[in-house]
């Protein structure tokens, strides 16, 4: 757990807090391990430069990715943010199941043996290539915990996690600082309420998961009673797995901690009753964050997520809780009225968005909290990134083949690519009825349309689709 302790000057002429930033990471260290060719390849596989970014930034940022994945998207839901999970699974099979990478592990031996039984069965009717692919796709989920334990220790180590925590902590510092500036500039919030807001923000904790809580020895213990014999047929092995699944479920409950299957999902959660943000391991992988990515991408990805979760502490729900996660009314009646009026403007704005596949309008009331967090989060992250650049004292390195894009433009491209996605009609229908998030397309178009920093970066004319004259403001630059 990392607690961000920032000094705060509450009363006096200036309500804006002062800070001691004591990051142990040199700003220049962030550029020593950059892989600019990797970034160039990423942009080449995602953006569509035939599209005017001031007319449809979603299509500009995701157009090539959508085209490349068009056939697969006809039958399945796809999101760019889930590609690292697919890569981790594929790497596991390529290295440990069909490859020659060695790991002293009983459960890995059982997994390899089950896979061989599966391949042997299906090569009786189909080609070897088909059998390999089929057995990977249909690999029993009961093995997932072991798969992720193994790949967790292949992907991360103590040193890498320490470096990630240091870099992310510095990002949190900068984004918190920028969010404090957003609060301080709001003329409709009085000094007393700002005091409570600063107090809550300063007390907001960040939780990172530790490697020592997930050991390979523990993983072996989970699966110690699973053993196949040389006499087992494929059908007998499958039957054994069903029996063992009950025991495994009980063992996992006894561990009383989040499974690595869940931890690898790219997610972060703000818990309003604890005033705490928990970060899953998957959020520290591309496209959210990578030590080889420029900080424009890291702030546009993970930085936005940090800002988004911080903003949840001050959205229509979070604003009802204090720094200890207790329900507390720290707003004046007039401030609550203004906050509600601004919230209603968000509802009206998002209600006008029509999702093309289903034909439904976005439910601005259902999605209000997430829309507030999207708008406040991207603004706090952008200002946090500008603070980083100011401390760096220069621009970041240019991307080969994409030198024309500024740091600020790359920030917004990175943000938008978190939402490159395609869903089937059935999934789209369900999401429109139940998901508290707006459709991915509008998380880009409407959110960025509200950001003056975006239209300035791409020099979009006032009145263009990405720079409407009217912008909705709560937790972003503007009074």
UniProtKB/TrEMBL annotation:
Residues 267-471 form the Peptidase M13 C-terminal domain. Keywords: Hydrolase, Metal-binding, Metalloprotease, Protease, Signal, Zinc. GO terms for biological process: protein processing. Pfam families: Peptidase_M13, Peptidase_M13_N. InterPro entries: MetalloPept_cat_dom_sf, Peptidase_M13, Peptidase_M13_C, Peptidase_M13_dom_2, Peptidase_M13_N. It comes from the Eukaryota. Residues 1-22 form the signal peptide. Residues 141-206 form the Peptidase M13 N-terminal domain. The keyword RNA-binding does not apply. PROSITE patterns: NEPRILYSIN. Belongs to the peptidase M13 family. This is Phosphate-regulating neutral endopeptidase (inferred by orthology to a human protein). It comes from Strongyloides venezuelensis (Threadworm).
